[in-house]
Amino acid sequence: MLLPALASSGSRALLIGTGSHPDGAGLPSVPAVAGTLTDLGQLLVERCGLDEQNLVVVRDPADPMELGLTLADQAEQAADVLFVYYVGHGLVSPGGGLHLATRYTDRRTNRLSHTALAYAGVRDCLLSSPARSIVVVLDCCYSGRAIGTLGPAAGEDTAGGGTDGEAAQPARVHGAYVLTSTGGEERALAPPGQPHTAFSGELIALLREGEPDAPAYLTLR
Questions:
Q1: How many CB atoms lie within 10 A of CB 154?
Q2: What is the dihedral of CA 84, 124, 164, 99, to 10 degrees?
Q3: Contacts from 45-51 at CB under 8 Å and sequence distance 24+?
């Protein structure tokens, strides 16, 4: 159960959002990212009991080095729960790997791997964390490609989550969980004029309003 566990002094939450891209980058800006980060961070503190000092919010990281080193810092510090949330553009490399966009990501095939953070690098960082539980939430296009990189061994179950989302309980990291907003071939939604992306908006609404027909606590599954 994520909510009581986040209240632990050994828990860390890292919220990452890339919503702004310069002209000519080939990636449209997503204004809803800013509001998503603000509101989700506030709710993790107010509803889930997270110590505000253990919340790190990264808005529009310039490049994959900035993003990767921040992730590494939080992964090293987490002893109980490590909660990592990304909202922004997800891109696919020629080899089929998921990449997380930064502000100056160049989507051209010969530049993507140098200007966006490969999810494989995220996985490697998480594998070395001392955290007892790891939760990764990806609200981006093609995010379902992350399932399997930390994901279940053959024969284990996967389950749906969020708004048309997918989830998996990884076998190779004890207590780890990946929740994605889309499948591996689908685009995530950010309705124009809305304060949040579609997937994150549903999660934010759940944290704010609860679910009358559900138990007091919900598991990630």
A1: 5
A2: 100
A3: 47/3, 47/207, 47/208, 48/2, 48/3, 48/6, 48/7, 48/207, 49/3, 49/4, 49/6, 49/7, 50/6, 50/7, 50/11, 50/13, 51/7, 51/9, 51/11
pLDDT at 153: 34
Query: Tokens 């953070």 belong to which residue?
Result: 117
Q: pLDDT of 23-74, one tens digit each?
A: 878 899 999 999 999 999 999 999 999 999 999 999 999 999 999 999 999 9
Which single residue is written with the structure tokens 């990764």?
A: 136
| C-alpha neighbours within 13 Å on the C-beta side of residue 95 | 9
Spatial contact of 35 and 194, defined as CB atoms under 8 Å apart: no
- 92 burial (CB, 10 Å; 0-12 / 13-18 / 19+) is middle
CA 141 to chain centre: 12
Q: How many CB atoms are located within 10 Å of the residue 62 CB?
A: 13
